[in-house]
Structure formats: C-alpha cells, structure tokens
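Posting here for the record, re: zinc ion.
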Amino acid sequence: MNFKKCLRCGCFFSSVDDICPNCAPKDMFEMSKLKTFLTSQVDDASVSEISKGTGIEEANINRFMSNKDFLKEVKKEKNNIDINL
Ligand SMILES: [Zn+2]
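Prediction output follows.
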C-alpha cells in the first residue's frame, strides 16, 4: 500500500486510490452526475460550461475527463442512447 495525498481534500491516506475514503462518495456522485450531463449533451461542452451545468469544480471535471475508464463508460452510454432512438 502506498501513502497517497487525496486529490480532493489534500489529506494523506494509505490506499492505491487517488481519493481518500471520505471523498470517495463525493467523487462517485460527481462522476455519475458528469456522466449524465455528458451523455445528454449533443455537442461538446467546454469545461466551464460543464462546471456551470453540473456545479462540479473545473479541477474535478478535468480529473474525471482524464480518466480513460470514465470516458469509455460515457461513450458506451452515449452509444446505447443512440441505438435506442
Ligand atoms: Zn479527501
């Protein structure tokens, strides 16, 4: 196990994750919120537009957007919606 600094609150904790256990639920919540926002978005929105639309801090949006697994999930969801239309 590594000693890590939480990317959200800056506290030190021992885990393989980048987010401490206190912040993990907030991260999960914002990720699902961002996913919903992105899948319902037809055109690409800028980070500041996304931040305004979701209330999520830009730094966190950038962090979620650099997560390949997250982007894959958004893409998958978007494809599902297209098929259902
Ligand atoms: Zn934290």
